[in-house]
Every structure is written in C-alpha cells, then in structure tokens.
C-alpha cells in the first residue's frame, strides 16, 4: 500500500526551526575537517547516559549489567553540559537506562538547551505523561517501539508499555508541538518484517518519524551474550533492509540513510570507524568507556571536560578507533564515519534526512 502523502499540516514539515539541522550538519562537516587536519579530535556530539537504571528488562539490552553504577548528581551533570557547550559541541543525546526515571531530568535537558546544544533524548516512553517537562527543553525525542501491542510489551518485559508509548506520543503532539518525535525500532531476532511494517504504518498514520536501530554487536563480551542471542544473521538483516528500503521509497517516514541501509543490504562487514572522534560518550558515573570493550579509560567527574579531551590518554584512545575491526552498525557510527571521510553518498543521504 502506498504511504499517504504528507499534508501541509504535517508536524514534520520544513520550518525555520529545522534550520538547526543544517547548522548541525554543516558545522559537523567543518569540525570533522578541522579535527582531521589537526589530528586532535574535536568531538561534536555529546552523548550522556544520565542514569543506568531502567524499568524495562529487554533481552537485547547492552547496559543492564551495569545498572549498579552510581549516577552523577544534577549539579555535576549541569557543569559538564555547560562546559560541552563552551567547547563547541553541537548537539547532545541524553539517554539511559531510562532517563525519565530521574525526577530532575527536565533540569538536565534545560541545561543542555541553555548550553546551546541541539538537545535529543532517548526513552522507552513509559513516563512520557508522568514526567513530561523535559519536552520544554528538547528538540527531538527517540521513543522505543519495536512492534505493536503485546509483542512490544513482551520484548520490553513490561506489560502495557506499548499503550503508554502511544498515549504519551499523542500527549506530546498536543503539548510539545515543536519537539520532533522519532520512533526508535530495534531490528532483532525478536521481530519479523510484518511487525516492522506495522510500526511503519503506525508512524505514518501518527505523523511521526521512524528510525531503525540494528541489534548487531560484533563484540565478544561475555556480559553481552544476551545481545548476541537476539541478533539476526547478516543474510536475514540484509533481506529485512531490502524491504525497509522499499518502504522508505514508498514514502513511509523512515529516517535511516540510504548510506546505512545499502551497507547492510550489501552484507558488508567492515568500514573505517571514526565514531569516537566525533562523539564523546559519558556513562552515568562519569566514566568514558572504550567502545570496543566497554572498559573505562578516563573519568570526567570532578575534572574539566576541556582537560579530559586534551588528555593524551583520550586523544590516543579515540584516534585508535580507525583501526577497530568491529564495524558497529547499531548506532550512528557508520553514518558519522562517512561524514568524517566526507563521502558524498553519506553527506547526500544525511542531507536528505535533514530536509525531509
Ligand atoms: S529500555 Fe533500553 S536501557 Fe532499558 S532495558 Fe531496554 S534496552 Fe536497556
Ligand atoms: S566500530 Fe567504531 S563504534 Fe564500534 S567499537 Fe569500533 S571504534 Fe567503537
């Protein structure tokens, strides 16, 4: 079935506010060039896990084995975010665990917006209506929905979460008209294409956007066996993305880039990764972890962020990423690495996402 044409009233139409995306993309490309020339990484995405605690218990969760770590207090988080803005980071992504478990989460979002960062959050959606003030200070929300109805509840091991996600989205469509809403749908062995298509239909009908994240970790961590158990094989992933690409062409509001989808469809298993040079990922206790083995290597707690990102340990660790063979596709690493290398197909794909 053809996707419905967007009307002029679509909440996803182009607006002046959306020009922030161009600043983000253009600024990102310039920062990548500067970083490359100086060999000193100047990351532009600020990614902060605000809590490791969560009310779901997903089988594919990468983080649940670390939920005993102590979260940083609000004042420390605000200090680090302010410094990120001063250092020229362009955007933030605030996540967890479940970030809305923090009663002070709106304050964290406010600090991010006041620091001049394009502010994004990622949530499982359970508390959208009971802790809603974050939306006053948030440009974009990623809300998890992997299937429709009980199937989603089963994946997240939380009865009623699908209904709460949908109700919360309707609430924010009314009360937070400027906030972009993305469904974040995890493609794993726990869903089939029929269920994925239902999610795409829901997003089209609800006039919200859709991003597929891929549950594929090439890491062989003992603690991540649960992730491995829910992964699709490369051939299966490729088949599903052929169909997802077709849905995007039909006009479903899918925002994964063609660059990303074509990589998966072609069953590629290597690219030169530059993600850690672009994104600074900080965990809820203030440590940064090496992405390839999740071991802590430096701490931002009680230490100026500028000092941390100029520390030789930080510089050497993130510059080593280009030799990493893990080829993660589960986050933005692939798209961002294409942007870093100024590959036209990546830039074109990301520009299409920005304007549509
Ligand atoms: S909602 Fe996210 S953080 Fe919580 S258990 Fe699921 S994957 Fe993990
Ligand atoms: S491929 Fe990139 S994001 Fe993945 S572990 Fe290696 S350096 Fe990190």
Structural notes for this entry:
This protein is an alpha/beta fold and 356 residues long. It has one domain: Alpha-Beta Barrel (TIM Barrel), CATH 3.20.20.70. Helix content is 41%, strand content 14%. The strands form two sheets. A seven-stranded parallel beta sheet has the order 6-5-4-3-2-1-7. A two-stranded antiparallel sheet has the order 8-9. A hairpin with a 6-residue loop joins strand 8 and strand 9. Helix 8 runs antiparallel to helix 9. The chain is globular. The structure holds iron/sulfur cluster (2 copies). One iron/sulfur cluster binds next to helix 10.
List the helices and strands and how they pair.
Elements: H1 19-38, E1 45-51, H2 74-86, E2 91-96, H3 105-114, E3 118-123, E4 140-144, H4 150-156, H5 161-175, E5 180-187, H6 193-206, E6 209-214, H7 225-229, H8 234-249, H9 258-265, H10 275-278, E7 279-282, E8 287-289, E9 296-299, H11 305-310, H12 312-319, H13 333-340, H14 344-355
Parallel strand pairs: 1-2, 1-7, 2-3, 3-4, 4-5, 5-6
Antiparallel strand pairs: 8-9
The protein binds iron/sulfur cluster (2 copies).
One iron/sulfur cluster binds at residues 54, 56-58, 61, 63-64, 96-98, 124.
Bound molecules: iron/sulfur cluster
Q: Considering the protein shown, what is the CATH homologous superfamily?
A: Aldolase class I
Morphology = globular
Radius of gyration: 19 Å
Could you say which structural class the secondary elements and strand pairing correspond to?
alpha/beta
Count structural domains.
1
Number of helices: 14
Helical fraction? 40-55%
CATH class placement: Alpha Beta
User: Any guess at the CATH architecture?
Assistant: Alpha-Beta Barrel
